Amino acid sequence: MPGCIHAIQSEKRIEATSDGSTILERLESVGIVVEYQCREGYCGSCRVPLLAGTVEYVTQPLAFVNPGEVLPCCSRPRTDVKLDI
Ligand code: FES
Question: Does residue 2's CB lie within 6 angstroms of at least one atom of ligand 1?
Answer without folding.
Answer: no
